[in-house]
């Protein structure tokens, strides 16, 4: 399941990169001989990337060096999503946590400085200074609050002990509703948790989409881990809620977001028990899980231009330096300079709600 | 923060900057009039008459200078301030926040007044703050750090234990990935403090993380991630890949020569050079070594970048090379045509800054600036370039190239690829528009965006 989605994303990324690539490619490839000059490209990329990077003074993000390694499609990033590509942050699916999709990412192999330094520090012999004290894992049972994407770390709450989803909803309303809304719609400027907005906007000036559990979060385990770890805001990991209660809150939010538990689109009933098993079932059906990919930046690979730079690098991206946008003006036509003029105004809604 | 204080600050600041610029202008314009350019003078032999030639024709001050009151009475004695504070005349150089960014002050951010700083070190009191659950007030005697998980021997350390280890001191920038977030969809704020203030640069002292992990016998064959966690109300966590953990991370107990401030994680914090500031977990109490990432809220719901097609980038670690002109910048105002020393900051999360180029014409032509500070790994680097402003409209931009060969892109290019719903990592260039001297708002410096 996960692999399939990932290849779809790869295609989507290529599409989204097209504009940037076209721009960057148009004038930077005048020479057109960079890929040929490397002469070592086997398949999609040069296997001897380390030597190429070293020969070029370690400049692994220099456009010419990248072209020598990746070929002339350096901007397409298509190859970057192949885990074997030296510039890929992606990790092969076989070590990617398996079918539940607990995705892993890595530092690209082409970032040779990082790998060399880590390897050196790993290999150096070490004898302990004996400055610490041994501690048993069992002594950490209060501190150990991680529940990861694989479901490692669930508290022991049996089916019998577990609360119902309805009870979880009551706990949510009591402890969370005043800031996040009774149905997860948000309140008082705090984040909504269950608003199903489209993640794509039609105009780049539109407010950024609200990212909530249903439309954005890739893992259901995160709901439990985070609410127990850090919520309620004024009293995190509250004994008044307890592990059972946090499981209940998590199940209620899964229900409120309409997250299915199986291929038949079964959703939680009020009378269902809020157990770790239920949350792990939902964990496989998080709507947006397949739409994440490992950070692939940097996304531009410009050459350092000094004189009469090409239009795509100048002003508005078409060579016009007088085509710019500015902040709202004051009545007298001057720019709004200080904060005073902005305080107590409505938030401008420019993509950082709940930031 | 009240309106009055802000208003006062702006008034004082611009007054200050005006007189600063005026001095530069007087010197500069006279120099041009006298036909002596700084660069030319430097290559010829020194001639005192030639040196002062630009002052020729300037009216001489003849009124006798009076003593100030501080010349006529004793100043204050030692230990009036057992812990020193800045002159009251500097009271307006402050961290500031934008109230509309967040609903409360415990999950919020303040920004460093970069326009008022010099050099590459941020004073501890002006270091930006980013809290996810308020600043904890921890007694260091009770604080512990545990290292466990995929290790041979889980260990617990006191802060004093950590100070016994071999120490290192490094100067690094620390930057919130949301730095510049408010400028994705267009320009709206006219100050470097607002456009670039979610970062600081200080000297940290601490213990190498690779030493601590090996002290506990990290199982390198199985370990792939470390999960640091804070002792504060947010229990802040991120998953950090082993390569980064073993590269150059360290656990810091000191900042600019003194203990960390509470706002920055007293008594200890993780330092992850070049990476997103949220990975530098404050109030560090636990490091779990694992083979899978946590998928914490701050690496899934937050600190992931929404792309224009609805997909999202995750596990974003490194901060891209970036730069900004801090003088002149929108907090200042040009005082007339003449000579200016344009200066600013450049930094890269992947290593040293290699070049900074400055354009005065919106990116058409570029001139290489020189560095006026040490050039350090993953640290602010101060650049400067001489500019003879002829009084016409100008579009100032700075562009960094780092030692990996990455060249900072212009905003339209970044927008074309990343869209504007990203929130984080808006690291493209910014543009300061200098209004023509003979125009209605002559000399204004305005943040504009292409």
Largest sheet of chain A: 2 strands, antiparallel
Q: What would you report as the Rg of chain A, rounded to the nearest angstrom?
A: 26 Å
Q: How many structural domains are formed by the residues of chain B?
A: 2
CATH fold field value of the largest domain in chain A: Cytochrome Bc1 Complex, Chain D, domain 2
User: What is the CA–CA distance across the termini of chain A?
Assistant: 32 Å
Silhouette of chain A: extended
Strand percentage of chain B lies at: 25-35%
Question: Structural class from helices and strands of chain B?
Answer: alpha+beta
Give the structural class of chain A. mainly alpha
- Low-pLDDT runs of chain A: 1-40, 338-355
CATH class annotation of the largest domain in chain A:
Mainly Alpha
CATH superfamily of the largest domain in chain A: Cytochrome c-like domain
CATH superfamily of the largest domain in chain B: Oxidoreductase, molybdopterin-binding domain
Q: Which two protein chains have the largest interface (Cβ within 8 Å of the partner's Cβ), and how many residues from each?
A: A-B, 134 and 140 residues
Cross-sheet strand order for the largest sheet of chain B: 4-3-12-7-8
N to C succession of SSEs of chain A: HHEEHHHEHHHHHEE
